[in-house]
Amino acid sequence: MAEKKQDRGTRKRFYDGYELAKYRKWRGFKDSWVDYVEWIKDRGVSGELIKSDPIRAFKAFTTYRWMAPYLASGAMVDRTLEDAEGVSLKIGHEFMRVILKSNVKALVKIIKADKRFGDNELADKMVLFEQITSPILIGGFPNLVHSVQEPYHTILPTANDQHGGYYFTDVIDSYGLPSDSCRVSSSICGVAIDDQLPIEGACIVTSNAPCDSSVMNSSVVARRLQIPAIEGCTPMRWRDESTNEYAVAHVKEIIKFIEDTTGEKFDWDAFFKVVERYNEETRIQLELWELAKTPYYPVPAVPNLLFRSFQLSFSSGLADEVVEVSREMLKLCEECYEKKINMRPKTRHRILVCGAPASYYMHFSTWMYECWGVNTVAVMNNLSHHEFISTTDKEEALLGVAKLWEQAIMRRHLVGGYQNMLEMFEEYERFNCDMIMYYDDITCKGSKSMTGIIQDTANERNIPLMWVSHDVIDPRTISRNEMRRQFNEFMFTVMNEKPLDESLLDFDDSKGW
Hints:
4-stranded parallel beta sheet, alpha/beta
């Protein structure tokens, strides 16, 4: 019986070279039924993309090559929940469905507002927020809608299909941009140069997040869209209080810019309601982090990462369902803790993960757990902005918005001084970890400059630290299997461990989604 259970989740279910399964994973009758029912619900959510406006949806799928990977969203959800069972399976599905619903709603807005498919009023009521800048300010404009540029065109398509994004980096490379430039920034330039940006938006708020390389893609995107633009340049040295006055003044400039270009006035009451929801999201997150310090935290690693990323960069109090689901999932997590139920029974090691993951291998943590029993209990990107924003003082509230932008995903620990990157060692102890893995993005110049200091600090503290290289959006440079090989080598030689499942050590998934 034990041998049969060991066979579950191995490469025997998959066709060689692909992630196409011959049959769904058997998790026992109850969990398999739950997984199937939740999968059906997810397909219903995905169907809303077509149902909302079939004609425009058809035009979008035949016009934009970045739309096709969204057809593989079901496979992406399956990959992220490969290691989940029981309460973990329930929580993982709920988190992923919130992300799926919100992504579908966002794509529906993008498609409906696109002037390529006919003029419409929605396009002129849409404010674009470029890069990973939180759109929380749009909460003060209840008559406007927003769209976040870049993730929907490059990062999320690559997360659904590993081959879904590098076409656009090839486009911008062919125009002379050095191929070692930040892929997060250069990929959206390729989308713009290839005329793959929807024609919509009354204006755009650009961004210098996560770093100044974003200024490059911001200027390209703004020029191609040919709509009014304002540079959202928040201070890099965000710990320096002397920058606060400038940061608040700049947020005011952005509000005035949106008012002038759209004719709408900022509504403080509406804005504070959104901020209240954001604060509730933050409060729940802080409670979840306390539970994550224990062995009884049931949230699967990948849904945990994706949900928190979505919460910061896409929702920030704007999506009601985020708070509702967060409350429900917190109750389930508290029950696991109170009853001392360990939903991650294979755990041998508790690992802290630093740096931005490869978009083409978002489920790497799932493999780590299934193959080696390495449980990802904390991710530094998740530990970005977690401060409460004032709901009574307008000046303090605007400073809170600035801080949210300054400490965004991929930014909090990358800029503002080298000490911010070394926070990983404090969080390592706080979450009771015994390993650290750093995602070594080969095109990120900021993190490259710190590798020596980080490694020396780990050596001084006798902390096992591994580096896993990737190329963010392009698996042709460093494949998924090469990432696994780097991890395997560390586990064999440094940790002196044996794999839980040898069939997961070396396999070909280069052709898979």
